[in-house]
């Protein structure tokens, strides 16, 4: 306790003077400080090894908040600021954000639904509200298009589809996968942007046949925030999946996206809106 007091107040009083008043030796204080520094360095080295292990497991996708939560769940109650400092010092930060490309084509004459969701992104029950969107994925053979359907309750990607074109088929495939997987009750609210794929007659008829009493909701024109959860997923995907660097062919990108969604995002990755639990864990806890 004496040496801790001296260390805390060394900027205010000289070490030699404090040692005299407290009846200890200056050499004793410096020996204690050297041991303390050595112990902290060893503890930091162990912590860096754990952080490196986590980043290897998650392919460098985690920033300090998720690394902090991962360590906490493993039984290491370490301060978040300390983790952030060590990650910066050892170049263990997650990948930088990439530019996001909008995909909406709302210049059509198909019927458009009102914005019923109205940014009410917190949902208390599974299979009551789904959101969907489409994005571009770069490959060496041209664009590959990805459509996802996300349940707002557990933020799980319940349906998805990849195609080389952006017809209504890509939306139908993703929606039907979600229906097959989740079997929603009548009255499901389905929110999307105003893209022609979602407004197309073929999709309207197929979705209404698969999900009785389906309620449609669409974002306001030019307002990406109305579908922020789907947009956020795409930004995360493009930041974390290194195979989306434009240097892989379509087959490689398809395989990487499949692995990311089904094996990683839905089952492993900690989701901040779910109390840092993966979607599958959040879904099982509510069952």
Poorly predicted parts: none
Going by helix content, strand content and strand pairing, the class is alpha/beta
- The averaged pLDDT comes out at 87
Oligomerization state: single chain
Tell me the fraction of residues in β-strands, as a range.
Answer: 5-15%
Largest sheet, order of strands side by side? 3-2-1-4-5
Shape: elongated
What summary fits the major beta sheet? 5 strands, mixed
Per-chain topology:
Elements: H1 2-8, H2 15-22, H3 26-57, H4 64-73, H5 80-89, E1 129-137, E2 144-151, E3 157-163, H6 168-182, E4 189-192, H7 196-199, H8 201-210, E5 215-218, H9 228-240, H10 250-265, H11 279-286
Parallel strand pairs: 1-4, 4-5
Antiparallel strand pairs: 1-2, 2-3
Helix pairs in contact: 4-5, 6-8
Characterize this entry briefly:
This protein is of the alpha/beta class.
């Amino acid at each position: 306790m004496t040496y801790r007091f001296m260390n805390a107040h060394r900027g205010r009083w000289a070490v030699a003077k404090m040692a005299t008043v407290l009846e200890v030796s200056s050499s004793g204080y410096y020996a204690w400080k050297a041991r303390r520094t050595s112990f902290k360095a060893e503890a930091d080295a162990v912590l860096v090894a754990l952080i490196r292990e986590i980043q290897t497991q998650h392919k460098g996708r985690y920033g300090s908040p998720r690394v902090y939560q991962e360590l906490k769940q493993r039984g290491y109650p370490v301060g978040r600021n300390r983790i952030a400092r060590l990650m910066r010092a050892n170049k263990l930060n997650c990948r930088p954000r990439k530019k996001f490309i909008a995909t909406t084509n709302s210049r059509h004459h198909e019927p458009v639904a009102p914005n019923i969701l109205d940014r009410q992104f917190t949902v208390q029950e599974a299979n009551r509200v789904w959101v969907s969107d489409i994005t571009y994925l770069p490959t060496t053979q041209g664009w590959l298009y990805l459509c996802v359907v996300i349940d707002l309750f557990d933020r799980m990607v319940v349906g998805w589809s990849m195609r080389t074109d952006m017809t209504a088929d890509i939306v139908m495939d993703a929606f039907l996968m979600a229906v097959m997987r989740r079997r929603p009750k009548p009255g499901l609210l389905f929110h999307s942007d105003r893209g022609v794929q979602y407004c197309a007659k073929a999709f309207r008829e197929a979705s209404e046949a698969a999900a009785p009493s389906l309620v449609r909701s669409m974002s306001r024109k030019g307002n990406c925030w109305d579908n922020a959860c789907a947009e956020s997923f795409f930004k995360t995907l493009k930041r974390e999946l290194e195979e989306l660097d434009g240097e892989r062919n379509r087959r490689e990108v398809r395989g990487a996206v499949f692995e990311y969604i089904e094996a990683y995002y839905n089952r492993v990755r900690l989701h901040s809106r779910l109390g840092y639990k993966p979607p599958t864990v959040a879904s099982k806890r509510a069952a």
